[in-house]
Amino acid sequence: MRKIQSECLFPVVSDPIPEGVLIVETDGRILEVLNPLLLDYSLTDIEKHKGFLCPGFINTHCHLELSYLKGTTSRGLGLDNFIMEIKKEPITNTPDDVVQNAIFEADKDMFEKGIQAVCDISNTTLTLAVKSNTKIFYHTLVEVYASDPVFADSAYDKGIKVYEDFKSTNDVSLTVHSFYAVSEELFRKVTAFAKHEGELFSLHHLESKEELLYFKNKTGKIIERLGLMGVDASAFSPSGLRPLVTMSNLLPEKPKKLLVHNTFANNEDIKHAKENLNNVWWCLCPNSNLYIENNLPDFNLFEKYSNHICIGTDSLASNTALSILKELKTIQQNTEIPINTLFKWACLNGAEYMGKERKLGSFTKDKKPGVLLIENIDKPRLQLTKESRVKRLV
């Protein structure tokens, strides 16, 4: 048993506790969360640390299989040019051992950086080996895409094959890439499957302004890119409306639905989701948004819906690190959102989206959420600093 104290303890489910003490069993189970000022007895044998204590982070959007692309892409290209870049030689012919080593290193690094659980997008089984032998809990979201309805059956069958490969060793769901990268025929096939099998559903949403142009009038870089890739987009008819408004009738009703990035989302999108959809969650990946589009979401817009906001890292193709703490720093630098709210987004909300809130996400008796120490903090203002770093204690 360990008694761990810091300058401020963040249970996440309640207010921060100055000089709070966490009593943790050797297996990581939380036994007590204590406020020393309210005790009528003295505590002994306490581990004292400088910094914040918070639960392990939940990364709700990652592409672990792209870890080998770290350092190979250019910043600020815009999403469509970024996609074209990662499809170039020699990237697509990277040796298998290099790919696997990068995946294992990224998994190890995420754990060391305090990440306890990950929603991971997979198009292949490249991450199957690491997910069979890791300290991180993974839910794999097998992603399918095909804009041309001619390929709906083959894309769906490929996704089902990957889904079945993961099913024996991993929590897994079938999902789509985005509203614009999936034909209505393929979307309906995946949705029909998700109604019966999938607990989670996830898709990229408004990562670039080009998605708006595509749905409103079928112009812009998406249609140009599809042409360069030889994709027949003639079956797509623009609605003149925003993507979520256009496509929400195709979303599965029961599974939790995670809209990822939301860089160019606005009040209309959030209002539509609130009034017309169930179980919608919003994932923010700010450092990836800066890397690709040099833009950030309107964080203050999402603060009003704090119970359903999650944090993701995206991939090492579009980020310099798979670090939730770095994502929180970026949000804090651009808003006045309190750190307790940010920890809620990064811990409890992600656990709730993944259906793991009974085990992860907060310092609550009998949970095993992991214990992180955030060092180099601004104690008087309860804020992170540029020098803040994470140290895993449990």
CA-based gyration radius: 21 Å
- The largest sheet has its strands arranged as 3-2-7-16-17
Name the beta content range. 15-25%
Category from helices, strands and their pairing: alpha/beta
Shape: globular
Can you tell me about this structure?
- The strands form four sheets. A five-stranded mixed sheet has the order 3-2-7-16-17, with no helix packed on it. It has a four-stranded mixed sheet with strand order 5-4-1-6, with no helix packed on it. It has a four-stranded parallel sheet with strand order 8-9-10-11.
- Helix 4 runs parallel beside helix 5.
- The chain contains 14 helices and 17 strands.
- The longest helix has 17 residues.
- By secondary structure, it is an alpha/beta fold.
- The chain folds into two domains: 88 residues, Urease, subunit C, domain 1 (Roll), CATH 2.30.40; 304 residues, TIM Barrel.
List the helices and strands and how they pair.
Elements lengths: L1 E4 L2 E2 L7 E2 L2 E4 L5 E5 L11 E3 L3 E4 L1 E6 L16 H8 L9 H17 L2 E8 L5 H4 L5 E8 L7 H16 L3 E6 L7 H13 L3 E6 L4 H8 L3 H8 L14 H5 L8 E6 L5 H10 L3 E5 L1 H7 L6 H5 L5 E3 L12 H10 L5 H8 L1 H6 L17 E5 L13 E4 L2
Parallel strand pairs: 1-6, 2-7, 8-9, 9-10, 10-11, 12-13, 13-14, 14-15
Antiparallel strand pairs: 1-4, 2-3, 4-5, 7-16, 16-17
Helix pairs in contact: 4-5, 12-13
